[in-house]
Amino acid sequence: MSPPTLRTASALIAAGLAPAAARETLDAVAERYATAIPPALAALIDHPDDPIGRQFVPHPDELHTAAHERLDPIGDDAFSPVPGIVHRYADRALLKPLLVCPVYCRFCFRREHVGPEGGLLDDTQLDRALAWLAANPQIGEVILTGGDPLALSPRRLARILAALDAMAHVHTIRIHTRVPVATPERIDTALLDALETETPLWVVLHANHARELTPAARTALRALSRRGIPLLGQSVLLRGVNDSPEALEDLLRALLAARVKPYYLHQLDAAPGTQRFHVPIAEGRRLLADLRGRVTGLAWPTYVLDIPGGAGKVPIGPDYLDGNRVRDPAGMWHEVADPAPAG
Question: Where does the Radical SAM core domain start and stop, copy by copy (predicted)?
Fold first, then answer.
C-alpha cells in the first residue's frame, strides 16, 4: 500500500516537512488554503524549501496579502456566464468541471476556490455549462481546467468529452493537468480510453522543475503519447524553484525528453499570499535571453503575462529587434536588410 496523501499539519510534521512548533500557523493556513501532497511528489522533497517542497508545503507567508495581490487575479469571475464556464476570448472558453486537484500549489491563482470543498459541477450545472458551449458556435476551442480534469472519473470525463465531440463547431479540446507528475498511476487504460475523441485533443502538463519528470511521470506521459495525444508543457516562473538559467534549462530539456513541447512560461499571477514566489518581469526576460542559443527552439516557451483583471494573456519575452538592427544570442547587434516592397 502506498503512503497516504499529506493533507494536514499533523501529517506534514510526521513526514518531517514541518517542525512541530509550526502546527498552529499551519492550521491557520489550512483554514484558508487546501493542502494535498501525493506520495509521488512527497517522495521528491528533501526539505520544505527545496524546489519541490517550496511549491507544495504550506508556509506562514501565505497568510499575508501584498498590496498588489487580488482574490481573482486574472478576472475569471467577471467572465463566467454560467457556473463552470469562463469566456475571456472570442473563439475559446474554459470549462471547469471540478475544483479539486491531486496536489495544491502554494502559488495557485485559483487558490481561493480550489480544494476538497470545491467539488464537482453537479449534473444540472454540468448540463447547463455544456448547453452554453453548444449554443455558442463561435467557440472553436474548449479548455478543460479546474481543478484538474484528469482527477475526474473516467466515466465522467468520457461523458464530457463525448458532449464536446458532438459539437460541430468545437475543433480543438485542451486539457490542463498535473496528474502525470502528481498521481501518475491515474493514467491507466480506463482513463486513456476516456480520452479517445474524434476532435483533436491536446494535453497540457503543468510542471515547474526537472525533478518532477520522474520515471513514473515519463511512463504516464509515454502512455498518453502512444494514444496519439500531443503533449504541451506549461510552467510558472517561481522564485527558488526555476529562477536560474540552469534550473530553467534543466526543466525545458526534461520536458522535451518526456515528449512534452514547452508551450508557456507564465509570469506569476498575483494571488493572495504568493509574494515569496515573485520574480520580476525584467529578471524573467533576462533568464529567457540567457537560454537563447543554449537550448533548441523546440524547448523555447512563450513567456506570458495574464494581465490582471481579465484583459488577456500577452507575450513578454525578450526583444531582439531594434529598427534595422537585430541582437544575436551572444548580445551582439547586426544590421539587417529589410527593404520596402517594390512598386
Answer: 87-299
* Residues 175, 170: Cα–Cα separation, whole Å: 14
Q: Report whether CATH 3.40.50.2000 matches the domain 63-335.
A: no
pLDDT of the chain, 343 residues: tens digit per residue: 778 999 999 999 999 999 999 999 999 999 999 999 999 999 999 999 999 999 999 999 999 999 998 888 888 888 999 999 999 999 999 999 999 999 999 999 999 889 888 788 999 999 999 999 999 999 999 999 989 999 999 999 999 999 999 999 999 999 999 999 999 999 999 999 999 999 999 999 999 999 999 999 999 999 999 999 999 999 999 999 999 999 999 999 999 999 999 999 999 999 999 999 999 999 999 999 999 889 999 999 999 999 988 888 999 999 888 888 988 888 889 998 888 787 6
Dig out the grid coordinates for 64 from the structure: 499575508
Q: Is 101 annotated as a binding residue?
A: yes
**Residue among 99, 144, 104 at smallest CA distance from 117:** 99
Cα separation, 255 vs 210, in Å, equals: 8
The reply to whether 115 sits in an annotated binding site is no
Specify the DSSP class assigned to residue 151: G
The catalytic residues are 88-89, 92, 101, 105, 108, 110, 269, 306, 313
Query: What is the residue whose three cell numbers read 481543478?
Result: 147
Alpha-carbon separation of residue 198 from 164, 201, 253 (angstroms)? 10, 8, 31
**Domain residue ranges in the chain:** 63-335
Which backbone phi and psi does 8 adopt, to 5 degrees? -130, 165
Q: How many residues does the chain have?
A: 343
Strand, coil or helix: 12: helix
58 is in an annotated binding site: no
